Amino acid sequence: MSGDNKGEEQINHPNHYGGDTTYEAIKVIMAWGAGFCDGNALKYIARWRDVDGVKDLEKAVWYLNWLIASLKAKTALVHGGLVAQQCADEDVQVKNPDVLVVPGASNRVFQDILAERIAQDEQWGGPEHDDNHAFHEWITFIRKQLTECNRTTARRAGFRKYMIRVAALAIAAIESQDRYDSGTSR
User: Mind listing the pLDDT tens digit for each residue in 117-139?
Assistant: First the structure.
């Protein structure tokens, strides 16, 4: 096997995810039709012995706990204190101010925003990173995504992806502002 093929195998079929076998993590996840949380849990379980040990198992548990909580509460999005719940009954009385009831809302939209927020936190470092930005920087980040969307999308092909990013950035900005206002900024 040449050096190029070995590097390609580490990208396409890394050993810590089962290599190019029937039981490769991505193949199992796709075959089972796993969603974001259960798919990530499977991924971390598959690699724990070869990558981050107990830390990977803790990540798997975190995703499973989130999935269990969301199923129990029938929530579509739980992140940083925000809970969005699909609800067909517009007359629902909500006593908890942290619960946002969205009548007839699509769970897929909220799941996708949550997935993007988690990806952003993993990439940039979460609240520790977010709280270093001033409000005008958040506006710039969102404006850049909108500009890129306008520049690159043809016939709405990538429009949804960019709007999910913008929504996730807006939530991050609001959460950061809320921490600042409450004096709990990091």
Answer: 888 888 888 888 889 999 899 99
Whether 5 is covered by a domain: the verdict is no
For residue 81, being part of any structural domain is answered with no
Cα separation, 152 vs 105, in Å, equals 28
Structural domain includes residue 177: yes
Residue 22 resides in a domain: no
Least confident of 15-24, 28-37, 108-117, 124-133: 15-24
Of the chain, the end-to-end C-alpha distance in Å amounts to: 49
Supply the range of the domain harboring residue 162: 106-186
- For residues 102 and 123, give the distance between their C-alpha atoms in angstroms, rounded to a whole number: 29
The number of CA neighbours under 13 Å toward the Cβ of 85 is 22
Virtual torsion, Cα 86, 90, 91, 97, nearest 10 deg: 50
